[in-house]
Amino acid sequence: MTESVWIDAGYLLAAVCFILALKALSSPRSARWGNAVGAVGAVLAVVLVFLAERPSNLVAILIAILLGGLVGAVAARRVAMTAMPQLVALFNGVGGGAAALVALLELGEVGGSAIIPLVATAFTVLIGAISFSGSAITFAKLQELMTSRPIVPPGAQWLFGGAIIAALALSVLVVTTGNTLIGVVLALVALGLGVLLVLPVGGADVPIVISLLNAFTGLSVAASGYLLGNTLLLVAGTLVGAAGALLTKLMAQAMGRSVANIMFGALRGGSTLG
Amino acid sequence: MAEGIVLLTIFVLSAFTGYEVIAKVSTILHTPLMSGANAIHGVILVGAILVAGRADSAIELIVGLVAVFLATLNMVGGFVVTDRMLEMFKPRKQVERP
Questions:
Q1: Chain B partners of A7 at a C-beta cutoff of 8 Å?
Q2: Residue A123: other Cβ atoms inside 10 A
Q3: How far apart are CA A204 and CA A140, in angstroms?
Q4: Which of A18, A51, A126, A167 has the largest count of CB atoms under 10 Å?
């Protein structure tokens, strides 16, 4: 009992680190310090989850962390300054993907129980998968693996509308049945939705979309925190979701555009200054 | 129910905090801030470790480990790349606004 109080106090400390990090990152003089504080909070959180949970499969988990850390650090060190935005998009996408996978795995556990955890699960899978595939497309656009011009497939509005309806219907099914297989289908539809969402956006506007998807991933992490009953994930995800939403608006303002115009301008037939 | 309301309270307060805390960001820091926030949601690693640690079939374990790998990539890569971006903001005395 007392042990769990210490763990929760530690999570609180990590949450404070994240708030301080965001605050410090907003000002040039403290920004680098802020990033370091955020990293300290993240490491603290990971140490705490090992202490609290004593997970089985420990060796395999540690190897996965080692590999992920190695690949992430090397990629971040080697990347050219000009290619950083697409790397951030990639990191954001894999975070969303991780959140979706966590929720899919947890679906087996919450299946048949209360409705709110199931809603949180469906939300995490949907938004996490959209963020994953959307980020993959922004990466491809910025890395010039594909044209950075807005791409509007024929009948895009119908395709997009249909995908949204399918995603909502599948979400309802996930909530009512708690079936993992339906959850997987929802994830696949959401992947398609993410692609459709980002294709019509022009190259110059892509950074704003990355910011929007960043906020999406934050929200899916928050929902997964709700699902797992983990307050730190809830706080960190919500912080990033809210800060990311505001930041997206500020970035669009700095370009003299509205977010709605950037996301849906091409769908409506307008120019997006690609 | 009581626990649900507690979590909802935390959610609402965090949302206001996240919004207020970056409201005064300077324009040159938009990209590093986005990158730093991106690294922070890498703590989904905590959730990934939880589910991977509870996995009781091979497929669950594999999916869980993939989640752990991806989340670590997000977290470690995110902080490192943000730090590299911010190296460019080394003490060059420019327009200082409080």
A1: none
A2: 21
A3: 14
A4: A18
Please judge whether A245 and B32 are an interchain contact, meaning their C-beta atoms are less than 8 angstroms apart.
Answer: no
Q: Tokens at residue A170, please?
A: 């599948």
A59 class by beta-carbon count within 10 Å (0-12 exposed, 13-18 middle, 19+ buried): exposed
Residues of chain B in contact with residue A54, where contact means CB-CB under 8 angstroms, are 53
Pair of tokens at residue A243: 């800060």
Distance from CA of B47 to the nearest CA of A (A): 7
Question: B9-59, pLDDT tens digit by residue?
Answer: 999 999 999 999 999 999 999 999 999 999 999 999 999 999 999 998 999
- CA-based angle A47:A51:A57, to the nearest 5? 90
pLDDT by position in tens, chain A (length 274): 467 899 999 999 999 999 999 999 999 999 999 999 999 999 999 999 999 999 999 999 999 999 999 999 999 999 998 999 999 999 999 999 999 999 999 988 775 567 888 999 999 999 999 999 999 999 999 998 988 888 888 888 889 999 999 999 999 999 998 889 999 999 999 999 999 999 999 888 999 999 999 999 999 999 999 999 899 999 999 999 999 999 999 999 998 888 888 888 777 665 444 4
Position of tokens 């000002």? A27
Q: To probe the interface with A, which of B3, B16, B38 has the most A CB atoms within 10 Å?
A: B38
What sign for the dihedral angle of Cα A55, A60, A61, A62?
positive
Q: Which two tokens stand for residue A58?
A: 């420990």
Of B33, B60, B68, the CB nearest to A26: B33
Count Cα neighbours of B61 within 13 Å in the Cβ-side half-sphere: 12
A200: tokens are 């019509």
What is the per-residue DSSP string for A219-257?
Answer: HHHHHHHHHHT-HHHHHHHHHHHHHHHHHHHHHHHHTT-
User: CB–CB of B22 and A230 under 8 A?
Assistant: no
The residues, any chain, with a CB within 8 Å of residue A140's CB and separated by 6 or more, are A146
Cβ separation of B76 and A76 shorter than 8 Å? yes
